[in-house]
């Protein structure tokens, strides 16, 4: 049994097909851009930059996106070259250079595996000879190349089992096609459909409201379903509120939290207890890269005497220990500093990182 992501499985199959792929270094999005930067002239990206009248880093970002899209949609580089010579030429140059330098990115892993499957490559057939069943999770989010991969694998297996929810399809912006799951039973006439209709996460109020909203928004474009909540919950307030400022919203939330503390709550096993601060969470769209975004909320919580913990603070370099280490390393910029000055400086860093409201 192999369990892993689509990308890791493709990497595994490529290694089974040809041992050389086990030596290839994998490039994530940032490393791919560094690869392009380090070979900017050799890949003739300068010509593309000049033709577009763009800056170097903008050109690198756009060619990296074009490379990924071309692979995700299984576009032919020769056809691209006929439509846009410079773009197609650069993409072909990238493909050749990645191969010669033994690099591979996530989009290329899938493309190469699909090409091997669709060309009926004997090596990949051998690698899949003992594989009988395929299960795909989050199927609503697969893109063109991934769907062709799944079809190619299924032709060599006894069964395919896909799991997903068309209402949770959120990656259309990167090529995912929700029709893959909506029309699955039309493409596979002998399949059976099993619906998991019980929602164990949310109360009846949330489940019914969200279901009605999705039905109004998507209507005939979605699979029919009638979700039911496992528990109705004994504490409910469902509403859509408008605030003129984020500060007003934050103050309302902190007041509401304090109003809820101590209210009787019934556990799933029937045990009763009072609500505590640790039962409550404020869900925010994102705080990554926006260190001030949550400041109005943390200020309101602090003013209301509510203890809080921020679970996600953006990139690893913005977290407390990383900022502390980074700032402490600034001492190296000033050689010869005394021990007293260094100690004072270091403890100021710790204090301001732990108590940012005091800065």
Q: Can you characterise this structure?
A:
This protein is mainly α and 359 residues long. It has 16 helices and eight strands. It has helices at 6-17, 29-38, 45-52, 56-72, 77-83, 85-101, 106-118, 122-127, 144-154, 179-182, 184-187, 204-218, 246-260, 295-303, 320-329, 339-354; strands spanning 25-27, 103-105, 133-136, 159-162, 198-199, 228-229, 264-266, 272-274. Strand 3, helix 9 (144-154) and strand 4 form a beta-alpha-beta unit. It is globular, with a radius of gyration of 27 Å. The termini are far apart.
Q: Helix count, per DSSP?
A: 16
Elements, N to C (H/E):
HEHHHHHEHHEHEHHEHEHEEHHH
User: How much is the average pLDDT?
Assistant: 88
Number of strands: 8
Structural class call reads mainly alpha
Sequence-ordered SSE layout with sheet pairings:
Elements: H1 6-17, E1 25-27, H2 29-38, H3 45-52, H4 56-72, H5 77-83, H6 85-101, E2 103-105, H7 106-118, H8 122-127, E3 133-136, H9 144-154, E4 159-162, H10 179-182, H11 184-187, E5 198-199, H12 204-218, E6 228-229, H13 246-260, E7 264-266, E8 272-274, H14 295-303, H15 320-329, H16 339-354
Parallel strand pairs: 1-2, 3-4, 5-6
Antiparallel strand pairs: 7-8
List keywords for this structure.
359 residues; mainly alpha; 16 helices
Task: Kindly summarize this structure in a few lines.
With 359 residues, this protein is mainly alpha-helical. 48% of the residues lie in helices and 7% in strands. The longest helix is centred in the first third of the chain and has 17 residues, at 56-72.
